[in-house]
């Protein structure tokens, strides 16, 4: 019996290792493809001339790094929230965090007499996400909300922020409306090396979140059982909510509102491989990065005369996959 369990565990670990190797290879191939294609095809290891070198270093490479960071952040945040809230439909926007960042962008756009700089917009998005998180924490602390009620409060905050964004659409002029739509539909175009300073903060936070896989595995057994095993559930819950809010705020600041990555990626991995968070979290980060790099590349090359918002591409890919997942899980 023990030999069979050992073989099963070894086989399971081999599947996770194979998935890691496959996704890392896919990310490398996708990244090289992203650096190469565009209006001018460039071999990234050997650009010819100053123009091609500038296109790689000043446009495509910063955009690639932003896509990797944002995709990894959204995917690992979604995987963590689904375990923390015990809800398979949970994703980074479910607690109203993305909505807080969006609402802050609308407020800044209307309060400043001239169009604010990109840095101001990024700072506003992160502050908006953090403010909504603090509201959530304050309400939950006073009322001692359960995880389910916490989820409902987050949904309500998301609806409230959506109403504020709608008011912004109604009263905006043509220029502000276009800028607002451009940001809220998700776009990584024009990301500069200065803006990538946010990534320096995001990467260690993503690594820290991935390191909490074993604790999330314990939490999956139930809050009462987890407390009996010595896990401080309340402390872990607020740590994860704060970290996820910071990651989502930074992601919105860098690339706008990009949906479905935090919802679909963890589901797909659980269906195909397993639900062991110790491995699922880092694999979700790699898979999410790969998907967003691929989606961003498609957004650049699908139309010859324009560039699609990357949020539209991820939704177009994610919605059919999500419907398939729902039908698969109901069988």
Question: What tags apply to this protein structure?
Answer:
mainly alpha; 13 helices; 0% strand; 331 residues; single chain; globular
| Helical/strand content category | mainly alpha
Low-confidence stretches: none
Strand content: under 5%
Q: Tell me, rounded to a whole number, the average pLDDT.
A: 83
Sheet having the most strands: none
Overview of the molecule:
- It is a single chain.
- 42% of the residues are buried.
- The protein has helices at residues 2-36, 49-84, 97-111, 118-143, 147-171, 174-184, 197-210, 213-219, 223-228, 233-255, 261-272, 277-301, 310-330.
- With 331 residues, the chain is mostly helical.
- Helix 11 (261-272) crosses helix 12.
- 77% of the residues lie in helices and 0% in strands.
- The radius of gyration is 20 Å and the shape is globular.
Question: Could you give the topology of this structure?
Answer:
Blueprint: H1 2-36, H2 49-84, H3 97-111, H4 118-143, H5 147-171, H6 174-184, H7 197-210, H8 213-219, H9 223-228, H10 233-255, H11 261-272, H12 277-301, H13 310-330
Helix pairs in contact: 1-2, 1-12, 2-7, 2-10, 2-11, 2-12, 3-4, 3-5, 3-10, 4-10, 7-10, 7-12, 8-12, 11-12, 11-13, 12-13
Q: Would you kindly provide a brief summary of this structure?
A:
With 331 residues, the chain is mostly helical. The protein contains 13 helices and no strands.
